[in-house]
Description:
Low-confidence stretches: none
CATH topology of the largest domain: ABC transporter transmembrane region fold
Number of domains: 3
CATH superfamily of the largest domain: ABC transporter type 1, transmembrane domain
Helix content: 55-70%
Number of strands: 10
Radius of gyration: 36 Å
Strand order of the largest sheet: 6-7-8-3-9-10
Structural class: alpha/beta
Distance between the termini: 40 Å
Shape: elongated
Largest sheet: 6 strands, mixed
Number of helices: 22
Strand content: 5-15%
Amino acid sequence: MRVPPRPLPRPITTSIQDLLSSVRWAARMAWSTNARQLVGVIALAAIRGLIPGAMALTARGLVNATVATLQRSTADLQPVAWWLLAGFVLTAADGLARLASELFAHRLRDDLNYRITSDILAHASKLDVASFEDPRFQDVLERAKQDPAHHVTSFVTYTLICASSIVQAASLLAILLSIEPLILLILAIFTLPYLRFEWRLTAQRYALEHSRATKRRWNSYFISCLTGRESVAEVKILGLAPLLIDRFRSLMAEFHHQDRELYARDFAGSSWFTVLTTAAIYAMFVRVAFRVLTRALTLGDLAIFGGATTRLRNALETVVAAGSNAMEQTLYIANVIEFFNVPPAVAQGGRPLPATSRAEIEFRDVFFAYPGCNEWALAGIDLHILPGETVAFVGENGAGKTTLVKLLARLYEPNQGRILIDGIDVQELSREQLYSQIAFVFQGFGRYEATAADNIAYGDWRRALADRERVKQVATMAGVDEMIAALPQGYDTMLGRMFGEYDLSGGQWQKIAVARAFARDAALLILDEPTSNIDARAEYELFTRFRSLAHGRTTIIISHRFSTVSMANRIFVMNRGRIVESGTHEELLAHAGNYADLYRLHQRQMASPAG
């Protein structure tokens, strides 16, 4: 038996259909985010595209007016003055339009950054735990996190630059065609192949970057190992830094080699375009100069042709570069779309729980296997937990204990069978409503960079975050009030080394996690190794309060400590994904089965000098 990995959305390709889909998505995103800023940027791009042609005509008029004035030997400078004034107005307008365009683009970029980043976080919060444990999804997420707002904004910017340059090129070309019609043929011969070359290079560059997602995650991992607070001490003791740095450098050297090849190809192609178009345009310029000498054209035509052809070539280079960049941004935008297309594996239900949940739990023939695994993590689980009952699950590592409670909390979905709370299949419940009735202390509990008070209040932050008295009451019930009172600023002490200057021991953090669970007024309490970091004395003090704290709640305990599980009403023994025994502590010892063997082994460990 092998459970196939959950399928991800179809990867985005460089096909025209996918490109157009990305273009439409980006346009809708920009429009819905700030339509006024977008309209402003578009209008200014159009204005800036028309100004060069108008300036060329102004230069032509100025030269011809000046020549005419000199030929008439008159002191009437009014025609020249008008052309000079027009040139001043156009130059000022071009500068102001550039500044206004940058202002609108910056504001649009800020709005898009806020919108898209918020949307990514919101979508990530809806995805199930299994998604984040899938390395294929991690690659999708890595690509989507590569500054998505920048890609959307850059797409809009490059598209407008391209459109503005097209308008500019068209207006200049219209003027130049009236002087030398062959210019259109010459430019088409060189521009179209260059455009095709740039697009192929862009597609190759994106494909290369797309393939690097896993390697970039490796680099991030090497950096975290070398700089992360949790790993830096062991890395130093083991002397792993040279090894990890060497692996990091190896990947970066591979990236640099690949990038240098692309840079060289881009430089070679652009250089050939520049040389060939310059030669062709210069040949056209010589032809126009000859026609001026034969009086077929005016001196103003010669002046405008020289300046306009240079600006036209620059405009065409900008069209090709901006167009290629815009298309490249659509490929990166496709990464964001691919992320948004990842659906939650946990379907949303809508059936309400009873007004007063009793947390009666039933598993009916439940099977579950992790995607890609060859055997069941849970196989044929049948059990019934009564409302308000305290039960414990014991077994060796990998027996399926934590997997079972995670299925109960709908962090995963079973492959077969049903899980019911108060007679309702959990798949019919909304996750939000289900979670509101569960207080869960995870084996890998959270250590939040926040104050001591907030760390407890997060258990029910909507009600407790602004209620310091309630937080203190929970802390007292959980037995952490004296510990918090001894902190430098008491409940206001910032915990964790990322933003604060005070950290807790593992056992102290675990006590805070237990208090956080009790802050939630939930019908179901799940404690996964709740005392693994707590010494025997602290454990005893905690569980002397436990019965009153858990009173009226259905409680599930997972622990390797028999002093903890022996207080349960019933104990379930698991082995290889199945429940093999159940009963009270005394009944299971008398049965002399798996539980008794584990208990005797535990007693020998505790009695040994090492224990």
